[in-house]
Design brief:
There is one protein chain. By secondary structure, this protein is α/β, with parallel strands linked by helices. It is built from 9 helices and 5 strands.
């Protein structure tokens, strides 16, 4: 098994890279997806979040009101740290379960948005960073995700700097160009990963 860490700042296109790697046969362990799973209605995670942040972060149907929670945590580093202290251990436990289910010859890609922030690079044999200049990320968040510029900057500021992410990279996928060129870049990375796996 080859264990890969995949990361990139919000708006960099990490999810698209993850999708392309999955199409090649990689086993994807998606931390964002798992983070949603562990705070789904009826979970201990959701109960812990509601206890910490109050009923204002719950929607009328009892599910997590993500925009309401985001407005609290992305404006206050201490509150973000409190949320992470609840969610991250749950995500780690579920990620370990999914990895354990993979085969010995699989390439397991851990899609981890906060890899650099949480000092996780050492957990993986290789770290891949999807890299885009900050001004391009800002434009994408405003144009494609409907955020205001201030909302986008707050989300970006809550993550590691571009320099901090690049400092932990073993491989960098530049996604600043058109989406059409991304598949070719991912093809090249997949070949490298297969060679690395074959070499043991």
């Amino acid at each position: 098994m080859l264990r890969i860490g995949l990361t990139g700042g919000i708006g960099a296109g990490k999810s698209e890279v993850s999708r392309l790697l999955a199409a090649h046969g990689a086993v994807i362990v998606d931390s964002d997806l798992i983070a949603r799973e562990v705070v789904a209605p009826g979970t201990e995670g959701l109960r812990a979040v509601a206890a910490e942040f109050g009923p204002g972060v719950l929607a009328a149907d009892g599910s997590l009101d993500r925009p309401a929670l985001g407005a609290v945590v992305f404006a206050d580093p201490a509150r973000l740290a409190a949320l992470n202290a609840i969610v991250h251990p749950l995500v780690r436990a579920r990620s370990a379960e999914l990895e354990a289910a993979a085969g010995p010859d699989d390439v397991v890609v851990h899609d981890v948005p906060l890899l650099a922030e949480n000092g996780l690079a050492g957990l993986y044999e290789l770290v891949i960073v999807v890299d885009v200049p900050d001004e391009v990320r800002l434009d994408r968040l405003v144009r494609l995700r409907g955020m205001t510029a201030d909302e986008a900057r707050a989300r970006m500021a809550a993550q590691a700097t571009r320099e901090a992410r690049l400092a932990v990279a073993d491989l960098v996928i530049d996604n600043s160009g058109p989406l059409a060129g991304l598949a070719g870049r991912v093809d090249e990375v997949w070949q490298l990963l297969k060679e690395r796996r074959a070499a043991g």
